[in-house]
Write a structure and sequence with these properties.
Alpha-Beta Plaits, elongated, six-stranded mixed beta sheet, about 325 residues, 2 domains, binds magnesium ion, alpha/beta, binds adenosine-5'-diphosphate
Length: about 325
């Protein structure tokens, strides 16, 4: 039974005088219990919208799909489970003149959480030493970690963090990532981490769902999802890329466009490409192995494969 389940969920934002903005387009999302699950997608792909829908902050389009959070239907079952969910969706509001500790104590009191738990949470986010200092003197990274501490007060079974390292300096980013990794290892909390940064997902997450234009385009263990699409790619520069793409596809290669050239996926022996093209009377100008980096994996997964026309159906490596 998954911690989070969205099935065919759509969301359009109505905009005055303009057509509605489709933010989620029949989105499927599954987050199993345990570890850190990444929610990766470029800006505007629908990450925040999905999280807001999960938390009951905005409604999905009426009649669209099914939403479950900790195995309760959303929004009807939310009152039963929302206490077991900690979330950091926007920069949280704290009293600037109060210390980090006092800010947490006020929240704890309102939620019926013990003082001892406040100290535990300060320790978890590594703020014990600075807990007596005023919030307004904290670095952005410290403010963000205090926000995570606040989300942890009620010992949530599910912790949702929406782009928690946005706006932080490198040290702040490192601290927040290190904290999330630690939380994921601890085993009691399932973490859902949204990010538009591939390296962050790779460093921190066990599994990932990749969003593009409001749809989930890939999902699974991080290693598998990224490796299956990004490794063994070869860039081919040739005078007539469209014809070459057709020839390569008919020979069983998986091909997608790449800035006036072709990207051929999952290639074991690049000389096969030379041979196949030469066999069709096509001579390439350059052939270069692409280091299997995350950027190309991400593009291969979310990129628009349409420029070589309908024949380019083979972009799935
Ligand atoms: N309140 C809103 N009103 C209108 N459009 C919105 C609103 N919130 C988000 N959108 C649009 O919905 C799409 C998805 O946005 P969002 O969920 O914020 O993506 P992400 O968090 O991945 O950057 C974007 O095109 C965005 O412009
Ligand atoms: Mg967002």
């Amino acid at each position: 039974m998954p911690a989070v389940q969205l099935t065919a969920v759509s969301k359009s934002y109505r905009r005055r005088g303009r057509p509605p903005q489709k933010a989620l387009d029949s989105l499927d999302l599954l987050v199993e219990y345990g570890g850190v699950h990444g929610f990766l997608g470029p800006n505007g792909s629908g990450k925040t919208t999905s999280i807001r829908i999960l938390l009951g902050l905005v409604a999905a389009d009426s009649g669209s799909g099914e939403i479950r959070l900790l195995d309760q239907p959303v929004p009807d079952g939310l009152p039963d489970v929302i206490g077991a969910v900690g979330a950091l969706v926007e920069t949280p509001l704290f009293f600037p003149g109060f210390s980090g500790r006092l800010n947490l104590q006020l929240l704890a009191e309102a939620a019926g959480v013990s003082r001892a738990r406040v100290e535990e949470c300060l320790e978890l986010v590594d703020l014990t030493d600075r807990a007596a200092d005023r919030f307004k003197g904290y670095s952005l990274g410290m403010k963000q970690r205090l926000g995570i501490a606040a989300a942890l007060l009620k010992e949530p079974r599910l912790l949702i963090l929406d782009e928690p390292s946005n706006g932080l300096d490198p040290a702040g980013i490192r601290d927040v990532r290190e904290l999330i990794r630690r939380l994921g290892r601890d085993g009691r909390t399932t973490v859902l981490l949204s990010s538009h940064l591939l390296p962050e997902i790779q460093q921190v997450c066990d599994s990932v769902s990749i969003l593009a234009r409001g749809r989930c385009v890939a999902s699974g263990p991080v290693g598998e999802v990224l490796a299956s699409r990004g490794s063994g790619d070869v860039i081919v520069h040739i005078g007539d890329p469209a014809t070459a793409a057709g020839v390569l596809q008919r020979a069983g290669f998986s091909v997608s466009p790449a800035e006036g050239a072709l990207m051929v996926h999952a290639v074991d022996t690049p000389s096969d490409i030379t041979r196949v093209l030469a066999g069709a009377g096509l001579y390439l100008e350059e052939l270069r192995r692409v280091t299997p980096d995350l950027e190309s994996a991400f593009l291969a997964i979310t990129g628009d494969p349409s420029i070589t026309g309908p024949a380019a159906g083979g972009t799935q490596a």
